[in-house]
């Protein structure tokens, strides 16, 4: 219980600190570009036209809504973080208790660090994460829609309970789970890629006789986690777009987005347009190839 409370407090603090970053990222994912391209320098020092980055975007939001505007959608996100931590912790504990029961019942326990051990632990983590995602996804949808309201200056989703009523009245129960499938797929793929890749690196590329082996293995876990998140980013993008698609907000309707019948249609459209990595980076943002900036619509087409 104490560990869970500690995780909740730590998670809530990180959620508050990272919220402006997520807010800007979501607006970029939707395609909202309120500021025109500017002449800057890339990583190699060459002058190129770039899209305004994180800090310029944040200043624009502050100019319109004040500093508090950077925290639109924070309340439902904090609720999702707290509930998700509790669910994840409880499910994971039950999975471990079941594993211990199987060992007492005569099943052989896999050695720590072995492939079988990694498979077992990853499966437990997958179940716990999936349950937490399933339970908190309605709050995730509300969070995204509170953020996307910035584009059309709407106030349709003004609070958690009002948003619940609005979604249920207009879309039914399924509206709370818009974008769930690509989000689950992305989480599961990212987890398996990260853990398996880290296991093979730690087993076959790192010699246990080396000094600072523990630190190196932790570093490899972080690197593979970053690599896995890059590979599965399209699932995050598609999930977020489907969560706000055709929900009555300007950011989920043409011209910002087509109306997609399924998430697969959204994926195909983004892939065809070359936008599968949109919003992945908030620094050194290059202009989309073959696109023209529309000042009045504040987007590229």
UniProtKB/TrEMBL annotation:
What is the recorded membrane topology of this protein? Multi-pass membrane protein
Q: What is its main location?
A: mitochondrion
Q: List where in the cell it is found.
A: Mitochondrion outer membrane
One GO BP annotation of this record: positive regulation of apoptotic process
Alphabetized UniProt keyword annotations: Membrane, Mitochondrion, Mitochondrion outer membrane, Repeat, Transmembrane, Transmembrane helix, Transport
Q: Tell me, what's a Pfam family for it?
A: Mito_carr
Q: Which PROSITE patterns match?
A: SOLCAR (PS50920)
Which InterPro entries does this one have?
A: MCP_dom_sf, MCP_transmembrane
List residue spans for each Solcar repeat: 116-204
Gene3D superfamilies assigned: Mitochondrial carrier domain
GO cellular component terms, semicolon-separated:
mitochondrial outer membrane
Please state which protein family the record places this protein in: Belongs to the mitochondrial carrier (TC 2.A.29) family.
Q: PANTHER family from the entry?
A: MITOCHONDRIAL CARRIER HOMOLOG (PTHR10780), MITOCHONDRIAL CARRIER HOMOLOG 2 (PTHR10780:SF20)
Name the UniProt record assigns to this protein: Mitochondrial carrier homolog 2
Q: Which organism is it from?
A: Muraenolepis orangiensis
């Amino acid at each position: 219980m104490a560990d869970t409370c500690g995780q909740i407090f730590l998670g809530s603090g990180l959620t508050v600190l990272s919220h402006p970053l997520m807010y800007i990222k979501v607006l970029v994912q939707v395609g909202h570009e309120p500021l025109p391209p500017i002449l800057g320098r890339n990583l190699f020092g060459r002058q190129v036209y770039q899209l305004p980055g994180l800090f310029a975007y944040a200043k624009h939001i502050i100019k319109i809504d004040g500093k508090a505007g950077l925290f639109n959608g924070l309340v439902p996100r904090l609720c999702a973080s707290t509930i998700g931590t509790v669910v994840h912790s409880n499910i994971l504990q039950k999975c471990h208790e079941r594993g211990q029961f199987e060992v007492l019942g005569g099943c052989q326990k896999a050695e720590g660090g072995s492939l079988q051990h990694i498979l077992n632990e990853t499966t437990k983590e997958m179940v716990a994460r999936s349950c937490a995602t399933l339970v908190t996804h309605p709050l995730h949808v509300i969070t995204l829609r509170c953020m996307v309201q910035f584009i059309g200056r709407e106030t349709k989703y003004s609070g958690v309970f009002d948003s619940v009523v609005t979604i249920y009245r207009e879309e039914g129960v399924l509206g709370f789970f818009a974008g769930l499938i690509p989000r689950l797929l992305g989480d599961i793929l990212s987890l398996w890629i990260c853990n398996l890749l880290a296991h093979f690196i730690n087993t076959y590329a790192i010699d246990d006789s080396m000094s600072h082996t523990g630190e190196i293995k932790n570093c490899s876990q972080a690197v593979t986690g970053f690599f896995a998140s890059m590979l599965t980013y399209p699932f995050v993008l598609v999930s977020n777009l489907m969560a706000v698609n055709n929900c009555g907000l300007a950011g989920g309707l043409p011209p910002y987005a087509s109306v997609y019948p399924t998430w697969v249609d959204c994926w195909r459209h983004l892939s065809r347009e070359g936008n599968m990595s949109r919003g992945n980076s908030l620094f050194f943002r290059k202009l989309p190839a073959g696109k023209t900036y529309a000042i009045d619509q504040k987007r590229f087409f």
